[in-house]
Design a protein that fits this description.
This protein is mainly β and 193 residues long. 0% of the residues lie in helices and 52% in strands.
């Protein structure tokens, strides 16, 4: 709160990363936070965890200069699994209320080099809430998968009710060049913007 720059979370692993329980990284703001509040999780090998949550929460009426970006890069396989067979992936951004985010802000990037697999009861959700806010350049959801994508429900969703996005607002799920074998969702597949 009231930071001119910073409040970033960077986790960089130049190998496999295994978390025995849930992995949750979140930045929140209750006052003006200037530049920052980014989450960057990069794993060059496999990422295995019970549940995965990366979230930026700026649901306050305070300006954000730029930032509030979420980046998840996994070089090989991304797997979520827990004892209740409900391990999922949840990446979310909520922009500041009635404020303007400048360059670049509120972008959500997911890149998996090989397979993305959740539990049979686990969902994959990529979500940006930009209701009643303005993003000058951003509010993009971009997912690229190099192998198979297997999940319960798959949701890529951008809310922009009463909001404004000058440049951006892209919602995209694409294979890495020459890849993406199959997308398997046991439940629904939603892509909304």
């Amino acid at each position: 709160s009231n930071l001119t720059t910073g409040a970033n979370i960077d986790v960089l692993a130049d190998r496999n990363l295994t978390v025995g329980g849930s992995l949750a990284l979140q930045t929140t703001a209750t006052a003006q936070s200037g530049t920052g509040a980014n989450i960057d999780l990069r794993v060059s090998g496999n990422l295995t965890t019970a549940d995965l949550f990366l979230g930026v929460e700026h649901a306050v009426q305070a300006p954000q200069e730029n930032g509030a970006n979420v980046t998840l890069f996994v070089g090989k396989n991304l797997v979520t699994h827990n004892e209740t067979n409900s391990g999922g992936i949840d990446l979310k951004i909520r922009t500041p209320v009635k404020q303007t985010g400048n360059l670049p802000s509120a972008n959500l990037f997911l890149t998996v080099g090989n397979n993305l697999t959740t539990d049979a009861g686990g969902d994959t959700t990529l979500f940006i809430n930009n209701n009643i806010n303005e993003v000058v350049n951003g509010a993009n959801i971009v997912a690229a998968i190099g192998g198979n994508l297997t999940t319960n429900n798959l949701t890529l969703e951008l809310w922009n009710n009463g909001g404004e996005i000058d440049t951006g607002g892209i919602v995209s799920l694409a294979p890495l060049p020459g890849h993406l074998e199959n997308i398997t969702a046991q439940g629904d597949v939603d892509r909304k913007s």
